Amino acid sequence: MNRSPVALLVLTLAPALLGLAIFRAYPIGLALYESLYTTIAGERTFVGLENYVGLLTDSGFWKSLRVTLWFNLIINPLQVALALALALMFVQKLPGMAVFRLLFLIPIGISLPVAVIIWRIVLLPEGFLNGALGAIGLGPYRFLTSPDFALYSIIAIATWKGISYWMIFLVGGLQNIPPEINEAARLEGASAWQRLWLVTLPLLRPTLLFVLVADITINFLLFAPVFMLTGGGPRGSTNVLMYEAYKSGFVFGDMGRAMAIVVCLVAMLLVIVAIQFRLLSSAPAKEAR
């Protein structure tokens, strides 16, 4: 029996579309629905947009938003820049690269909870890092219990865990660039920096766009390190929006507020990703003109 191209396309994409509907569209729709309700004395009541209006005057929400934005402003450029630097080193045929590759692929093989536990031991006041710093006359520092250090400690842990993962995608992108293009630029007298900036990065743009979008999505929704290491403290310095939503829903039982926070977070994330797509996807066309 002959099938039309459209029917064949729908049949081919059906499993993926079904998974997208179940694991993406349904949770988002459920969050939107639940954000319109609140629970008072065990009774669920429809309140419309009241949960969203309440967030506008909620100092806890705004403080968590500031922490989340500051966290992402630091970690996303840091992770992508380090992953790109490691990827550029990874593709070089230099002595000792086999050891280098092994060392920087180790974080991928360690699950996030195990990595967090390891780093908790390392960063304790009597842990390995303070012991090493004490040997040279520094410290001890309260990496996880000081408002001045806690957020940056989580940034360091998440960066250590993430850069090797993003490096793999960037290595794939670099290996897809024909070596003849770089060689031609070198013969034309372009320096290594000029070849990187004018040849490699423009050709790597699609891979960089994917890495940026995926990295920002993961870091905006970061939860496990905060939950396991600081509990949003000290003094709210690591209380990102995902943890604030968790507290609202599962600690204080206000699921409506929790879902409203999640919806706001997803909306902000969609806006940021759309801006990234707009800027990075339109760049080649502007250059061509």
Query: Strands of the biggest beta sheet: in what spatial order?
Result: 1-2
- Which descriptor suits the 3D outline? globular
Q: Report how far apart the termini are.
A: 49 Å
CATH class descriptor name: Mainly Alpha
How many domains in all? 1
* Percent in helix: over 70%
What's the gyration radius in Å? 23 Å
The percentage of residues in β strands lies in under 5%
* pLDDT averaged residue by residue: 85
User: Which architecture per CATH?
Assistant: Orthogonal Bundle
Category by helix and strand content: mainly alpha
CATH level 3 topology: MetI-like fold
- Number of DSSP E strands: 2
Largest sheet: 2 strands, antiparallel
| Name of the CATH superfamily | MetI-like
Low-confidence stretches: 284-289
Structure notes:
The structure is a single chain. The protein has 289 residues and is mostly helical. It is built from 13 helices and 2 strands, in the order αββαααααααααααα. Helix 3 packs across helix 7 (150-175) and helix 7 packs antiparallel against helix 10. The radius of gyration is 23 Å and the shape is globular. The termini are far apart. Mean pLDDT is 85; it is low at 284-289.
Quick tags:
mainly alpha, disordered C terminus, two-stranded antiparallel sheet, 13 helices
Please specify the SSE layout and strand pairing:
Blueprint: H1 5-34, E1 37-40, E2 43-46, H2 50-56, H3 59-90, H4 97-105, H5 112-123, H6 128-135, H7 150-175, H8 179-187, H9 192-203, H10 205-220, H11 224-230, H12 241-251, H13 255-288
Outline:
With 289 residues, the chain is mainly α. The chain has 13 helices and two strands. It has helices at 5-34, 50-56, 59-90, 97-105, 112-123, 128-135, 150-175, 179-187, 192-203, 205-220, 224-230, 241-251, 255-288, and strands at 37-40, 43-46.
